[in-house]
Structures are given as structure tokens and as C-alpha cells.
Give the backbone structure.
Amino acid sequence: MEPDNGTPRSPEGTAGKSPGPSGTGKDDAGVPPPAIATPAKPAATPPSGTTGEERPDVFEATDRTWEGIVEKGKLPVAVMFYSPACAFCRQMEPYFREYAADFRGLVLFVRLDIMVNSWTPERYGVRSTPTFKFFCDGKPVQELVGAVYPAILKRTIADVLAHGKECARNSTAIDYEITGYG
């Protein structure tokens, strides 16, 4: 065990190392710190004026981009509310991506991480993952919860595509200006 001499320690064992004489972020030997690679995320919103071949099949939405992608979108939308720690979400993900490719240009497929974006799932009553919600004209028209059979998911997507607009027309509009303060 080393004696504690009051020098701050880091988990990497770089106690006593300074950012270098010039403050450039290099250690005393002139070696820069290792670069941290971050995976690229797909664009949050589909770029306007692009064809389906230039876009990803599944978009990653956030609380901030939700309205523009889902509620004001022109196409029916299939949303997968998921959690990175959810085993059933990982089980359903390949099927969701496969159907996104099958229905490209007809239905917009979107994922929303409930661990990072809590407002939207709370607003739509999502209580477990995975939850698949289907929207037409910005209105929720269908929902599936849990690791459903892939054939049921595909059939629901086809049904929403066939009957979703009619269902949305017959549902009550949501007033987004409602507050609890009268």
C-alpha cells in the first residue's frame, strides 16, 4: 500500500501528472490523452427534400423533437418507447428495424429512449417497455405493450396504415394549451 502524500489520484493511476508545461493537455512526456470515440447517432428529424434511400429507417426522437417528428408529421408514425436496459426492447429491436425497411416511405419509424426523455412517455401513459404506439395525423390510434409476437407487430402496422387516418378523424383532438391553472 502506498503512503498518502496528499497528491490527488485518478482512477487511471495518473497521480501527480500535470496537464503539461504549456497547458496543452499533454502529459510531461508530450503524449496527448487518448481520444474518446462516440458513436454517431442518426438525424433526429428527416431532412426535407430527401428520398427514402438517403435517410435512416428508424429515427431517434427526443422530448424536444417529438412534436415536429410525430405530431406534425405527414406520414403515419410507429413509435417504440424503449430503455437501453430492457432485454425485451433488445429482443424486439431487430423486428422493428426490419419492418421500418419494409414500410419505408409509408410509415415513419421512431424510437424514444424513456431513460433520457421522461416527459413524452409520461404524457402518453407509457408505463413499461417496450411500448409501441402508432400515430396518424399526430393522434395516437393504437398501442402494443411488451415483447409481442413479431407477426402481431407487423399486422398492427399494416392495420394502422390501412385504417389509421379514419380512426384519427373519429377521435377527439388534443388541446395542447390545457393547463391545470384554469
Observations:
- The CA atoms of residues 145 and 179 lie 29 Å apart.
